[in-house]
Amino acid sequence: MADGIDQQIDSASPTPTPDRSCRMERFHCKPPPMKAAIRIHQISKRFKSLQALDQVSLDILPGEFFALLGPNGAGKTTLITILAGLTRADSGVVEVMGHNVVSDYRNARRKLGIVPQELVFDPFFTVRETLRIQSGYFGLKHNDDWIDEVMTNLDLMNKADVNMRALSGGMKRRVLVAQALVHKPPVIVLDEPTAGVDVELRQSLWEFIKQLNQAGHTIVLTTHYLEEAETLCNRIAMLKQGRVIALDDKANFLNRQATPQLRIKLMPDMLPTSLHPMLISQEDGYHRLRLPALDQLEAVLQTLREAGVSVKDLALEQPNLEDVFVQFMHQP
Ligand SMILES: Nc1ncnc2c1ncn2[C@@H]1O[C@H](COP(=O)(O)OP(=O)(O)OP(=O)(O)O)[C@@H](O)[C@H]1O
């Protein structure tokens, strides 16, 4: 990775610098508030009768790996297009590294790299030409060293001189990621970057994005692969019908759901009535039960024995982000 990356991150340092003037009054002063890498303040957007975003507010701090989760149509892409300055919000303010995306568009755009969900590309250029043209949009004339480094990290070197239209879908997506990085933006937003992408690319893509995050870049990710968000992100916002319904550290989301779940296959396939209140779901011949506490396991087994039901298979599972997500989405 280029040394240059860190120099580009300007005020994106994850650690705030303490104010020296505070030393004399150390019992009274607080560290200065960290300036948000992305500030989204009371954003609303309506498409005719549809309220796509409704008073959305989020502050994403420098150096965070942030997940924006939500079902189809929740408003994630709309929020990202507003952030990119491609759609105007009806009301509210969005800033990237302190630059307003409407009134200070050029500076806001320079601080931002966006990997769009849709595969948009110019079929007449090669991969290298595409990346050079993208560099030109940001006034970068001698960017070949960095372009080579990005292509190497995304395993694109052997496709550098191949025409864009001749690439597979997964390869095109790699180019979209490379395009978002040509100007070394301190803030990188990835809208469903792994949709339709094979396991190998996913892993190499995430390795590269993790390195960028470790170098101080702020990463915002939307994905329907919740295990990706669980592995990578440190803070999560859940969007539903244009509203933020939950916002917290990943660890807090998971701890809220600390009780284990029991996945069990029965013979005959009949759950005794007294265990129905614990039932979460039933699929592929398995019952999934929520145990109030681990020591309830023996009581459940006892109930099954008394009902003449035998256990064919059993596993204890810790709840994951998907369980938490489903629970939030089903809340009225
Ligand atoms: N240009 C548009 N005109 C009319 N409606 C739109 C437009 N763009 C988005 N919408 C609607 O706004 C809502 C939010 O869409 P958006 O694409 O932001 O959701 P999303 O959370 O990104 O969904 P997905 O996970 O499917 O990508 C949807 O109901 C969508 O149909």
UniProtKB/TrEMBL annotation:
The keyword RNA-binding does not apply. InterPro entries: AAA+_ATPase, ABC_transporter-like_ATP-bd, ABC_transporter-like_CS, ABC_transporter_ATP-binding, P-loop_NTPase. Residues 1-22 are annotated as: Disordered. Keywords: ATP-binding, Cell membrane, Membrane, Nucleotide-binding, Transport. Residues 38-266 form the ABC transporter domain. GO terms for molecular function: ATP binding; ATP hydrolysis activity. It comes from the Bacteria. This is ABC-2 type transport system ATP-binding protein.
